[in-house]
């Protein structure tokens, strides 16, 4: 690694995303809202601050076609391949944190002024790699938060993750969270120092996620038909199974189509389709491969309702993207989704998290096209003030404060 002194005005950041690449397609494998957050906030930072340069480090579990990808003149992504971790599942990755940290140190081209790590595995790698370097960390999700809100069919998070998160929170220079709810969780579950916590809200690309007259809602004005869209990694935490069960409880005079966008690679989505067949809903339930932003935006625009039935979300970017498209959202009344959706104004929060409650919420909104129209207008308006540029500004102010530049 070069030991050359940096110019006084420059800032070099190492961004660590160990378990998933920010360039990966959201909605597939382990890629989701965190990938969107890292990618969009990074690009906004680079666009606004020419003095910033960034190296991103991510683990790949199969030999990559290239070890480095230049994503701008001032940013590159290192794809770190560890033969001993070939084919490893996300749950196996804690054992490879020390190896990843050593490989990161060898791959780095410049010494960082600070490190920004995302998710607990990355935080542990950062502490191994450069324990004396200022560390900004974003959890995205926490074991304690997930365990506290998990339903009976969700396995608890492992003790090694709880211990790792505690170690990170005790050691960080700054902890970035999406909402005040998440900030409160950090204090309540981990005893985090409130002075280290910084609430920085994610944004949405309203240039891509926007209403288009050429792509209206599929059943605008209907009180008996609707297209319901779920977008995200299919897994019990996200709750798509609740939507399948809810459809079976709807009155027979309603015709609701459920489109699920995403692939987990675990076989969970196959179980959803099997359950739909058991319930006689094969023609009403479909699964679509993950889509790039413009394709996802088109699907969200065509939806009459977007559903986010998660048991826990630190924010819920899909809910925000749907609102930017002018689509009403039904979301679980849990942590971050209570911030992402303005209850009664841009959508409705659903509780309890049961198929019955979801069936009632879906039926009520399907039968009321005037309410859907009202929500559409307010949803778009709300997102116009939530920009990635603002997220980038807040992050840079924090970086400068930490490095005293």
TrEMBL record:
Residues 223-382 form the Glycosyl transferase family domain. One of its GO terms (biological process) is carbohydrate derivative biosynthetic process. Keywords: Glycosyltransferase, Transferase. Coiled coil: none annotated. Residues 32-206 form the Glycosyltransferase subfamily 4-like N-terminal domain. Pfam families: Glyco_transf_4, Glycos_transf_1. GO terms for molecular function: glycosyltransferase activity. This is D-inositol 3-phosphate glycosyltransferase. It comes from Rothia aerolata.
